[in-house]
Amino acid sequence: MRFDVLTIFPQMIASYLNEGVLGRAVERGTVEARLVNIRDFASGAHKNTDDRPYGGGEGMVMKAGPIYRALESVERVGPRSMVILLTPKGERFDQSLARELATRDQLILICGRYEGVDERIRRTCIDMEVSVGDYVLSGGELAALVVMDAVGRLVPGVLGDEKSSQRESFEQGLLDYPQYTRPRVFRGLEVPSVLLSGDHEKIRLWRRTESLRRTLERRPDLLQRARLTPEDQAILSRLKEES
Ligand code: ADE
Fold it and tell me: How far apart are CA 23 and CA 120, in angstroms?
């Protein structure tokens, strides 16, 4: 997977990419990340990347020219390359979109700032607009990092343990079960005894039940789409009766 990020703040992206899971993937070459500073493609003495909106009004709009030229400078690694604009107006990002994007060879991510990007960029260069949630950030940089992180960890070889991303709650459409580690008693609170029993089948059943309980309590909407087994259905009926 290769990410090319177009931004006027490449350092914001660079510092995150130096650390953690994504940092290791970049170091190993499993994920390639290139940062393109849009300002390098601005013209004029001031190298402006934004200007006042036609028609008047508040704020500034990102100019089409610098973004267009920055985009032209990016090498396309193949037909499975995609240009994404991060914007609160975009399609809502979730685990299933992350999975879809992880099948691509290259994501070119454009981080907008100010009041938005000149509409002609959107109309001519963009394959998809993506929002990371119903709130407004100061720019697309954090959103691009969210996309890169969630997609990157699905790329084979990025997580040490191949199976671990598949075991995760959202992959199965459920919230995660509670986790405990040492010590056995913390502030008078004990680790549930089943987790100390060594009985793998009991532990599996307890975890599945707690996962379903949390999802039922906090995100019942997820249950509509989750892949539920007959055992899950039985557990859910019991949980609903209990409450
Ligand atoms: N830019 C500003 N807010 C955003 C959001 N919620 N998602 C993606 N890009 C953004």
Answer: 34
